[in-house]
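Please, structure for the following, as tokens.
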Amino acid sequence: MKTRPSDSTDKRERGSRSETEVSSGIVPPPEAVPYQSKAIALFQRIDGLDICIFCMYVQEYDKTSYSKNPDQDVIGQNKRVYVAYLDSVEHFRPRKCRTAVYQEMLVAYIAASRARGFESAHIWACPPSRGNSFVFWVHPLCQRTPTRDRLEQWYHQALSRAAA
């Protein structure tokens, strides 16, 4: 098995400031929030071919990259990671280890982020509609789509391992 950071891109999300916010003394959002977008993939060699079986899209926000003063907290933000999408296909072998390995990918990413100084992690935990896909365009017909409760349980199980 091989883990590959498939893509890493620096991006800037533009904020919008309204006249009301500026004139009323409300702390306005920053003009732009830069972040690094990454795709982390797991490949397994199956029948001589490297098959991508797991992919996770993350965004990393580092307050020092958009604050003029690194010691100043920008609107309560700190170094955060956001797991935007996580998707897999059932091709992993042996099948009985699939959940543990996929959860370990998430746990290892969070641990590596923590070691790099990130303080918070946010996870998008909404299952796709049947026939809709986040990362992989096609899933095996026999692969079930988790319910919201099952997906949340999966993340809680993974995160309890990360906290240990």
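Residues 52 and 126 are 22 Å apart (CA to CA). The helical segments are 19-24, 98-115, 148-163.
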